[in-house]
Amino acid sequence: MPTLYLLRHGNAGFGGPGQQDQDRALNPAGRQAAALVGRYLAQMPARLDLVLCSTAERTRQTWALVAAELDNPPQAEFDEALYLCSGAALQQRVRGLPQAADSVMIIGHNPGLYDTALFYSGGGDSDVIGQSLLDFPPAALVALQFDHPWAAASQQAGHLDFVVTPRDLVET
């Protein structure tokens, strides 16, 4: 069953004068949140087959901190097209994922990740869906499962398995 993990980058600093948005780094809270998400993923039985990551510094750092917590993490593919990518473009990207990659994580930005989570959320616990509709904070992780290959991923075709935020992980 194909599973898509959508991970928003951790909290980033505001950057200095003349600094490009793409160059903003994680702040201490963002680094801590990314490590928490990594530890959470490390406890799951499923392993990632593929990671697609925006080229922004904050997404690269998020992945590095998550990967440091995992046994044998896959190499991430850094893609400039994922930087501030729209929901529609992300959905097209999902439909083009390799069939051999059963467990895929995309690390990126809002509103594209949020829009993609809402687009695919067609089944699952209504409380979990409601939670995802209300908030998609930095370092939030959403898991969607599909009954069909990636190429057939369509609106409301995903089962929203879980939404976890750094706040959830600190409270557990």
Question: What can you see in these coordinates?
Answer:
By secondary structure, the chain is of the alpha/beta class. The chain has a single domain, classed as 3-Layer(aba) Sandwich (Rossmann fold). It has six helices and seven strands; from the N terminus they run E-H-E-H-E-H-E-H-E-H-E-E-H. Strands 3-2-4-1-6-7-5 form a seven-stranded mixed β-sheet. Helix 2 links the parallel strand 2 and strand 3. It is globular, with a radius of gyration of 15 Å. The model has no long low-confidence stretch (mean pLDDT 91).
Order of helices and strands: EHEHEHEHEHEEH
- CA-to-CA gap between the ends? 28 Å
Annotated CATH topology: Rossmann fold
State Rg: 15 Å
Structural class label: alpha/beta
Characterize this entry briefly.
It contains six helices and seven strands, in the order βαβαβαβαβαββα. It is α/β, with parallel strands linked by helices. The chain has one domain: Phosphoglycerate mutase-like (Rossmann fold).
